[in-house]
Amino acid sequence: MASAPALDLKDLGPDFVRDPYPVYAALRARGPVHHVRTPDGQELWLVVGHEACRAALTDPRLTRDLRKVDPTLHPHGKDGADSPALTHMLLRDAPDHTRLRRLVAREFSPRRIAALAPHIQRITDELLDAMLADGTGRADLVAALAYPLPMTVISELLGVPAADRDAFRAWSNEIVAPTDQELLGAAYRNVVDYLRGLTAAKREHPGDDLLSALVHTVDEGGDRLSGDELIGMAVLLLIAGHETTVNLIGNGVRALFAHPDQLELLRADPDGLLDGAIEEMLRYDGPVETALPRWTTEPVPIGDTVVPAGVSVLVALADADRDSGRFTEPDRFDIRRDARGHIGFGHGLHYCLGAPLARLEGRIAIRSLLDRCPGLAPGADEAGLPWVGGLLIRGVRTLPVRW
Asked: What keywords are assigned to this protein (predicted)?
């Protein structure tokens, strides 16, 4: 039986890119899964609602491994699916995912992440020194703090030279929010070529960095990352290691600006409220709007709808965390709320490995920003801010502030 015509998300909400939450809520009221057309023209199936999203994230019939379906289903075509840049654990199911995650997880232990706090604080202080020294009392917070902080941290952690980070930012921007198929293909090729050279250099001359460690990591069974797996892991860590935190900081500050009572509460008691504020920022307007695509290996019933085999499925993390069935008054931003249970970092097998690092960077950045800029306020009307394209990353490309 043919499926119903796809619902156009832009038709459902002309302001969908800036504020998708009313569209998601309207869809959730009709059922947990819908055949939709995205603003960039893709047709796929969208899962909404907290319970349905959590279930979809752990359903083995929704694979992350394109080798189990049709590589041309990849949103960037077979060339994207075949790129060594995508031979990483987010595109594998168990047991392959388990193996790849095991080889890198020990480098992201809570103890190792906590030990980074003084260094992250120093980087934050240097960035804020530079921002405040400008003398204008104005800045783009994304360019001044939200982007360079996590990019510096993950680049130093992996051993990427400072001179190469601007080039990597351009490749990363195109990969997470493509603007053109040719530019996207070039970004994949460039990042693979770059990392082939960098990993070769680390193999010959290892340093005290994560990439050198991954090049030489051998587990107790003698297993190690292949050359392509090493490139894929480096791409994943570099992109995921900064994109999430950039938009956690940006979205968090926007939420505080839009709710001045909450900003004042946080200023008055940062020691008591900061951890909860970070969790509420992740719940209320988190940096990842939908989980990376999954593909059905067979027909999958979700609610009263059967999603066909061989189609792309997106899980709307943003809607799951605004579901009144899980959170009381979910559209209210409340830093005193118990926001535990949100799925801003995913759920199940592919729960974000770097979540502790993102939380740590977010806490240090927000606390330091409020301490150093007691008069912090919006520098422009939010309605005119440029948004990151696509449904993966939720955030603005620039965030003017004044103090």
From this structure: Heme, Iron, Metal-binding, Monooxygenase, Oxidoreductase
